[in-house]
Specification:
Number of strands: 10
Helix content: 25-40%
Strand content: 15-25%
Distance between the termini: 9 Å
Largest sheet: 8 strands, parallel, barrel
Order of helices and strands: EHEHEHEHEEEHEHEHEH
Oligomer: single chain
Radius of gyration: 18 Å
Shape: globular
Strand order of the largest sheet: 1-2-3-4-7-8-9-10
Number of helices: 8
Length: 297
């Protein structure tokens, strides 16, 4: 199992770069950031762009993987996104993972002046977005006409450092999204079942996650692929456990062990932010980063 972190882009780079460098020092497998224009309770405070932040992080670190968790079609277009990702993969020396999902009804959904899409509309767009992005990152020139997204002789030369392209970590729980994960993903991402976040139990969460992995397995089988080929990533903080796994090293080891048994290969924890939903003791957090995985062996 691998342990990664997600660093929200809330600090000016003069301060924020220290966090990304510290994440590398602590030995995290990857450091991700959210690709939003603003987000939840942080809407009225500082919030910087994901791709420039990751570019800066790439120049400030040497080994740690970097990525979005997640990018969505809410305000992205495959043609421009592919060009930026190709450059970012080059700058990082091939250390980028693209976490990608269908998006939701948060602030990003209307920031460009559009009406929020229904779940079906988001799924329709995502089903077109991912295959086109895959082509753009693997072919020198792409022309495609779609209902929502098109490309006309779009060039992406010389392509990604990682071949055939940088990996996709597809966030999905519904049948259409899981089909995309099975077809295009090198990893699958979940935050658990949102319906039980408020009133559910950790045991119910484990059962829900087990069900999601079973559905992923069926989607892979339908695509002629082994589910074991995909990394399975759990972004924590959105299950009924909430912040309890970060209360101590022992608590995290127990949490990680239960989810490793389900088949998860990577767990992502939020870098502590005081006075927020992601508040946690920094010393305990760093002890988890350096000690917890060894206790799982």
């Amino acid at each position: 199992m691998r342990l990664s972190t997600v660093i929200l882009p809330i600090h000016r780079w003069s301060e924020g770069q220290k966090t990304w460098q510290r994440a590398e020092e602590l030995g995290f497998h990857a450091a991700y950031t959210y690709d939003h224009l603003s987000w939840r309770t942080f809407r009225d405070g500082p919030w910087f762009g994901a791709l420039p932040t990751l570019t800066a992080a790439a120049t400030a670190t040497e080994r740690i993987r970097l990525g979005t968790l997640v990018t969505s079609p809410n305000f992205r277009h495959p043609v421009t996104l592919a060009k930026e990702l190709m450059a970012l993969d080059d700058i990082s020396g091939g250390r980028i993972t693209l976490g990608i999902g269908a998006g939701g009804n948060g602030f990003d959904a209307t920031a460009l002046g559009q009406e929020p899409w229904t779940p079906k509309e988001r799924a329709d767009r995502f089903a077109e977005f991912v295959p086109l992005l895959d082509r753009l990152l693997t072919e020198d020139a792409v022309t495609q006409r779609g209902t929502f997204y098109s490309a006309d002789e779009a060039r992406n030369i010389p392509g990604c450092v990682q071949r055939p392209r940088l990996p996709f970590a597809v966030a999905a729980t519904g049948p259409r999204g899981l089909k995309l994960a099975a077809r295009y993903g090198q990893a699958w991402v979940t935050t658990g079942d949102p319906k039980i976040f408020e009133d559910g139990t950790p045991e119910q969460s484990v059962a829900a996650l087990r069900g999601q992995i079973e559905k992923l397995g069926k989607a892979c089988a339908d695509s002629g692929r082994e589910v074991a080929e995909l990394d399975k990533v759990l972004l924590t903080g959105f299950t009924p456990d909430r912040g309890r796994p970060l209360e101590s090293v022992d608590a995290f080891v127990d949490f990680a062990g239960r989810h490793r048994e389900l088949g998860f290969t990577e767990i992502v924890i939020h870098w502590p932010i005081p006075d927020s939903d992601f508040a946690a003791d920094q010393q305990v957090f760093e002890s988890i980063a350096t000690e917890a995985l060894a206790q799982l062996d």
